User: Which sequence fits this backbone?
């Protein structure tokens, strides 16, 4: 038991599971809210890999891994959109590559620098809230959450047996990575999650001719191709996905705010939106100004969560089956410098992109042989490395971690109807197996994919973090914890 945390002098105790961008922004917003109100507060930020402040996306050490959104869109503070730009031109300068010109709203910063920004933002919030409010960073894997014996708190159990009693728990566990969707040998040359600590350095290590097969053709694949070929110019990368589509290139300009999109489907706020109507209206908006399709997508994006909630379940399934991949390649854009590098790699043949389905991978004379079904024939691709970059799991119950398995098995949480994430209310309160919202267990960011669909990028996460912090801070002090034995 972490006793030091359980002193009543420190007011409410919030445990956040996951130290990535979602957990960090939630912690910063809680501390900021506590500072404004002068409230005592304890926040425990628990991360499995000790990547507090960074998580999966921002723990990269490569300056070639750029944000796919511009600095003007990536402030961590919802009420101060220039915050990141000011940081990057002052305290953050030392974290930018030498020779970086002044950062403006249209700069694509390295993700590594953005990680430093998140760390600094959290440290600032910590300073503002001290000494009444405190932040503790814990490294450990949370495996269970349940009410404590007296029913006065939620108990978080870590793998090493440490327990923490908290008044509220925020699940900020990020996306669930899918395993490889085919049989592959469990050798060190098969990387099932390239963002795991140490995975990229293993890939970067070799010299001489070397072939890397990457399953997936999204932004992660592009980052990997750039990293692998920069570390070893003799390496070749072969990227495979069922559709073979690459993300489109970012225009490098801010959206034209004076040209808002108008879609009839959007104005009918209470009526169900049908996917076919919506698609027709979006296509018509793009057809009216094809060169500005980026602006249509940018204008549409903030509306996606609302539209998603209005779509019937059958239409959501249709979207996931037939349209999601097209949405993704137009929505998650490649920063122009990365796009130029990728064009060059494709021109020299160092990167090839294939459409097809990998059937299996097997060892072959010290290497790997990857069997690809292209739809026309079966091809055997020789590979020294096989890397999974297929993105988040399509079914959370298949990828569930010990913590999620325990939450689902105990009925404390349930998957959303599409199994994209965890079922929750619009304020992030987790629904139990009967559909009752918890008053103490919350989530934000990627686990809310089923609810909002667009919920994985910083603009959505920062707004959710601010709203969640307000909810937890404003409602919790009035509560009593006297429900022995009740579920979280
Ligand atoms: C490569 C990449 C690039 C991206 N680029 C951008 C971008 O440019 N702009 C943008 O807006 N968005 C970008 N994103 C979206 C990105 O997902 C979010 O910005 C953000 O990183 C999500 O943060 P998260 O904290 O929810 O998840 P994660 O970063 O995955 O963090 C979750 C953390 O929780 C920990 N954890 C999970 N379960 C447990 C447990 N049981 N116990 C303890 N710890 C646990 C994990 O170890 C992990 O550190 C990018 C994503 C990726 C993958």
Assistant:
């Amino acid at each position: 038991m972490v006793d030091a945390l359980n002193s009543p002098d420190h007011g409410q105790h919030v445990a956040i599971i996951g130290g990535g961008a979602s957990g960090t922004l939630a912690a910063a917003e809680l501390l900021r809210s506590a500072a404004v109100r002068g409230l005592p507060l304890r926040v425990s930020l628990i991360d499995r890999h000790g990547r507090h402040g960074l998580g999966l996306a921002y723990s990269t050490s490569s300056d070639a891994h750029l944000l796919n959104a511009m600095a003007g869109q990536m402030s961590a503070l919802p009420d101060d959109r220039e915050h990141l730009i000011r940081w990057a031109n002052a305290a953050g300068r030392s974290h930018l590559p030498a020779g970086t010109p002044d950062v403006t709203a249209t700069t694509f910063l390295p993700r590594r620098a953005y990680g430093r920004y998140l760390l600094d933002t959290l440290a600032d919030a910590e300073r503002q809230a001290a000494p009444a409010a405190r932040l503790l960073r814990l490294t450990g894997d949370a495996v269970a959450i349940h009410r404590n014996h007296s029913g006065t708190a939620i108990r978080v159990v870590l793998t090493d047996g440490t327990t923490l009693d908290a008044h509220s728990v925020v699940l900020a566990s990020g996306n669930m990575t899918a395993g490889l969707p085919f049989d592959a040998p469990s050798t060190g040359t098969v990387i099932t999650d390239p963002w795991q600590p140490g995975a990229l350095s293993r890939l970067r290590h070799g010299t001489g001719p070397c072939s890397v097969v990457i399953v997936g053709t999204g932004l992660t694949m592009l980052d990997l191709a750039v990293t692998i070929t920069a570390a070893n110019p003799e390496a070749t990368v072969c990227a495979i996905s069922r559709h073979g589509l690459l993300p489109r290139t970012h225009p490098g300009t801010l959206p034209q705010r004076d040209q808002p999109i108008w879609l009839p489907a959007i104005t009918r706020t209470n009526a169900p939106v049908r996917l076919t109507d919506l698609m027709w209206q979006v296509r018509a908006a793009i057809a009216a100004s094809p060169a500005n399709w980026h602006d249509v997508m940018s204008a549409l994006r903030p509306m996606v969560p609302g539209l998603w909630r209005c779509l019937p379940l059958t239409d959501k399934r249709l979207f996931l089956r037939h349209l999601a991949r097209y949405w993704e390649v137009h929505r998650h854009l490649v920063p122009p410098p990365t796009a130029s590098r990728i064009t060059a790699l494709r021109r020299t043949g160092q990167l090839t992109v294939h459409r097809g389905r990998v059937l299996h991978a097997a060892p072959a004379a010290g290497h790997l042989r990857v069997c690809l079904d292209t739809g026309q024939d079966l091809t055997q691709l020789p590979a020294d490395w096989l890397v999974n970059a297929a993105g988040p799991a399509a079914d959370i119950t298949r990828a569930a971690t010990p913590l999620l398995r325990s939450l689902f098995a105990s009925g404390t949480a349930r998957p959303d109807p599409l199994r994209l994430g965890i079922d929750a209310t619009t304020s992030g309160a987790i629904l139990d197996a009967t559909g009752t919202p918890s008053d103490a267990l919350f989530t934000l960011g990627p686990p809310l994919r089923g609810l909002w669909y667009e919920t994985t990028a910083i603009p959505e996460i920062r707004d959710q973090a601010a709203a969640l912090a307000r909810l937890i801070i404003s409602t919790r002090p009035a509560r009593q914890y006297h429900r022995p034995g009740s579920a979280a």
